[in-house]
Amino acid sequence: MHICLVTRTTLAHIGGGLERHAADLCQGLVERGHRVTVITTRHPRGETETQAPGVRTLFLPHSADRAYAVAWWRESAAALACVHRADPVDVVWSEGIGAYGYLRLPARQRPIPCVAILHGTPLGEWRAMRRQWGDSPRHAYRLVRFAARTFLFGRMFRTTAQRAASVICVSPQLAEDAIGELSIPSSRVAVVPNGVDATRFRPDASARRALRAQLGLADDALVLLTAGRLEQAKGHHRALRVAASLVEQGLAPTVVIAGSGPDEAWLRQQAASLGLADRVRWLGYVPHEQMPAVYNAADIVLMLSIHTEAFPYAVAEPMACGCPVVASAVGGVVSLISHGDNGFLVPLGGEGEAATLAASLA
């Protein structure tokens, strides 16, 4: 089949979970004999097209980088029509609401069936922003902005979900939310969790020793890891508070933070105010192929997100590496972790519980 993926962002733009999911799925489709054309937003360095075995990626030059905007909806629908005329498309794959520009067209202009893969819903995003309100009034503007965005995106999500032939959700919790919030019948919804390559993400003692040596950490040092985009919703500041609590208990943790993002300066201030400046290793953005070593170097992974996580790689991948995970009981995390069996769950804001668990694992 010829499958056309419409998505606002790829690994050429940023290295997040959604982008990794799309890349892995493209690779799997090609391995099964299919061809994939990717339509996405403007390339950060101005490229208009790239080629990989079985995958052709078109970067639309007049759309804003990674942005859902009027130009993107219009240009992506036109690009899809052009691709279909030149090489008929069998299935449109909408990553999130990426193909809304196509799905909003009248039925006669939508001859190709579409499958939408959802990683979240607008109300889920709104709930995450509301949870942030309790942390810092500096986010008041973001909350107001998200209120308007939730209303606008809610319509786009409903159109996408209701007009797609099938909707795939990456966790049972997300499927339940989507069915109720987007008014779609359960018969058109399937749950397909994100996958992890267990040949790469696996226990590796040599990788553990090598990275610890590179970071100047002893083999017996207590290492806490928090990984992901550096923004408040991901809860890295909560991991810092857990580390501070462990210090108060007489332990000597080192916090490794893997990721980059807009709140890095604020997080560095948080670390300094907690007296942890000398205990934190800032790795910055880590390429995905290097993450197995990072997970293996850790003793405990803290994923204290206040975001409504659908199916976070930052939980599934360290689990595959055999590293204990302490995570917020949000979204699809509860379908990944059975508390006390293959990991540990704490309530939102449960930094005290997380510190108690971390101390027991140290």
What's the oligomerization state?
single chain
CATH architecture descriptor text of the largest domain? 3-Layer(aba) Sandwich
Structural class: alpha/beta
Ranges with pLDDT <50 over ≥5 residues? none
Helix-strand pattern: EHEEEHEHEHHEHEHEHEHEHEHEHEH
Number of continuous helical runs: 13
Question: How do the helices and strands line up, and which of them pair or pack?
Answer:
Blueprint: E1 2-6, H1 17-31, E2 35-40, E3 49-52, E4 55-59, H2 70-86, E5 91-95, H3 100-103, E6 114-118, H4 122-133, H5 140-163, E7 166-169, H6 172-182, E8 189-191, H7 205-215, E9 222-227, H8 236-248, E10 253-258, H9 264-273, E11 280-284, H10 291-297, E12 300-303, H11 313-320, E13 325-328, H12 333-336, E14 344-346, H13 351-361
Parallel strand pairs: 1-2, 1-5, 2-4, 5-6, 6-7, 7-8, 9-10, 9-12, 10-11, 12-13, 13-14
Antiparallel strand pairs: 3-4
Helix pairs in contact: 4-5, 7-10, 8-13
Keywords:
Rossmann fold; single chain; 362 residues; 41% helix; 18% strand; 13 helices; 8-stranded mixed sheet; globular; alpha/beta; 2 domains; 6-stranded parallel sheet
Summed up, what is this model?
The protein has 362 residues and is α/β, with parallel strands linked by helices. The protein is built from 13 helices and 14 strands.
Tell me what the structure shows.
By secondary structure, this protein is α/β, with parallel strands linked by helices. It folds into two domains: 2-191, Rossmann fold, CATH 3.40.50; 205-361, Glycogen Phosphorylase B (Rossmann fold, 3-Layer(aba) Sandwich), CATH 3.40.50.2000. Helices cover 41% and strands 18% of the residues. It contains 13 helices and 14 strands. It has helices at residues 17-31, 70-86, 100-103, 122-133, 140-163, 172-182, 205-215, 236-248, 264-273, 291-297, 313-320, 333-336, 351-361, and strands spanning 2-6, 35-40, 49-52, 55-59, 91-95, 114-118, 166-169, 189-191, 222-227, 253-258, 280-284, 300-303, 325-328, 344-346. Strands 3-4-2-1-5-6-7-8 form an eight-stranded mixed sheet, with helices on both faces. Strands 11-10-9-12-13-14 form a six-stranded parallel sheet, with helices on both faces. Strand 9 (222-227), helix 8 (236-248) and strand 10 (253-258) form a beta-alpha-beta unit. Helix 7 (205-215) packs across helix 10. The protein is globular and about 70 Å long. The termini are far apart. 43% of the residues are buried. The mean pLDDT is 92.
